Amino acid sequence: MHFQWYPGHMTKAKRMMQENIKLIDLVIELVDARIPVSSRNPDIDELGRNKARLIVLNKADLAQEKYNEAWTEYFKDKGYVVVKVNSKKGTGIKSIQGVIQKACKEKIERDRKRGILNRPVRAMVVGIPNVGKSTFINSLAGKACAKTGNKPGVTKGKQWIRLNKNVELLDTPGILWPKFEDQNVGLNLAFIGSMKDEILQIEELACKLLTFLKQYYAGILAEKYEILETEDAYTCLKAVAKQRHCLLQGNELDTEKAAGLILDDFRNGRLGKITLEFPSNNH
Ligand code: G4P
């Protein structure tokens, strides 16, 4: 899915979030494990104030394990409960229910003190487009798909998915917008394919990715495309075009096609597990 945001969209998304957030105890925030900060929404901490919080590093299968660990520690240090998953395959999904209980410990304890026992925790999944919200919900619900609400004769309302006797999940996720005014965030979102490629200069984008990979993942390009990584990014792009027979009429190198191929390889994990953003004190 591709997305473009403009104020109308944002206002509507924010209004829906504000409405739905009143109904829940726990915000399950999905981020992309390859870019855990760039894929966050700047307002989520404000919107989720006074709620229990859980951060899910989704698409962990596409990111480097050592950085998944580092990001887990990073968010834990900030007071969040964190879990890493691959929603597509279901890896890590089993642990979610336990993690939800952990994230809601204080709420459950508060209830208990007031004599409220066994009131289910109500949760909502939120995140920017394409981060995997639907896949995550389906993966969770697949295991326990008992919907409540919308019973005949009852006013049409929210659909809740009962995960177990302790947890109910709102079936529609909250959509948030990224910090797209930040150039670096925009670039990271473009790398992972969450921006319209048509609005981007694809060769420039591929060159930026090549530069990054040469610097932080030395050897990957040489191995995958049999090219010399010591050359500048555009020369590398031309070398990939040559290796992969991306040719225009008259045997001219089709660098645009090669750029698309490299981006596609990266996005589908064919260049290996690659984290684009590293934890640092700047975040
Ligand atoms: P959204 O609701 O937040 O917009 O995201 P959605 O679930 O539609 O997922 C966006 C894309 O990310 C989908 O790929 C989905 O399969 C993929 N995805 C979601 N979670 C994971 C994960 O943990 N690991 C990996 N590797 N991929 C994940 P798509 O290209 O749109 O479709 P398809 O490839 O599944 O056909």
TrEMBL record:
Pfam families per the UniProt record, alphabetical: MMR_HSR1
Described function: Required for a late step of 50S ribosomal subunit assembly. Has GTPase activity.
A cellular component term, taken from the record's GO annotations: cytoplasm
Top-level taxonomic group: Bacteria
Organism: Mediterraneibacter hominis
The protein, known as: Ribosome biogenesis GTPase A
Keywords from the named record: Cytoplasm, GTP-binding, Nucleotide-binding
Listed GO biological process terms: translation
Compartments, as annotated in UniProt: Cytoplasm
Iron listed as a keyword: no
CP-type G domain: residues covered: 10-178
InterPro entries: G_CP_dom (IPR030378), GTP-bd (IPR006073), GTP-bd_ortho_bundle_sf (IPR023179), GTP-bd_ribosome_bgen (IPR019991), GTPase_MTG1 (IPR016478), P-loop_NTPase (IPR027417)
Record has Lyase as a keyword: no
GO MF, one annotated term: GTP binding
Family: Belongs to the TRAFAC class YlqF/YawG GTPase family. MTG1 subfamily.
Binding site for GTP: 58-61, 86-87, 130-135, 174
Database matches in PANTHER family: MITOCHONDRIAL RIBOSOME-ASSOCIATED GTPASE 1
